[in-house]
Design a protein that fits this description.
By secondary structure, this protein is an alpha+beta fold. Helices cover about 25% and strands about 35% of the residues. It has one domain: Sandwich (Jelly Rolls).
Length: about 140
């Protein structure tokens, strides 16, 4: 078994790809075949496996989730009571509740078995920059 903690610095809401860091961890590890767990240790961001070829996919996902769960300053969100950390805080928790905070990725021959256009992303749901801790475990 092996474990690595990555820190991913974000600049606000959006998707941050870290596939290469995961590939490097598997490539340089001692385990030939298995399943790697990717887990984010926060409640206002999430993880996704998503297309990494066309940046408009990421822009559309960000826009979709903004429309689905707008900030608490939006009149449709007046029912929200948790507002202590700003208008993006509770919507970030809702988005993280809807999306995964852990992923399982199989590998063999020290190579991830991702599809051709798949990348591993941290989806930051907060407006401010953050340092997010992601744990990789085989």
């Amino acid at each position: 078994m092996a474990m690595l903690r990555l820190t991913i610095s974000t600049r606000g809401q959006g998707l941050y790809e870290f596939t290469e860091a995961v590939r490097s961890f598997i490539r340089n590890g001692s385990v030939e075949e298995g399943v790697m767990t990717v887990f984010v240790r926060h409640t206002s961001c999430s993880l996704l496996i998503q297309e990494n070829a066309d940046p408009s996919v990421q822009a559309d996902l960000k826009a979709f989730f903004h429309r689905l769960v707008p900030p608490t300053s939006d009149p449709s969100m007046q029912w929200i009571s948790h507002r202590d950390e700003g208008p993006d805080d509770m919507p970030a928790h809702i988005k993280a509740a809807l999306l995964p905070v852990s992923l399982s990725v199989p590998f063999t021959g020290r190579r991830l078995l991702l599809g051709t256009w798949q990348g591993i992303y941290l989806f930051e749901h907060r407006d401010s920059p953050h340092h997010r801790e992601v744990v990789l475990h085989v």
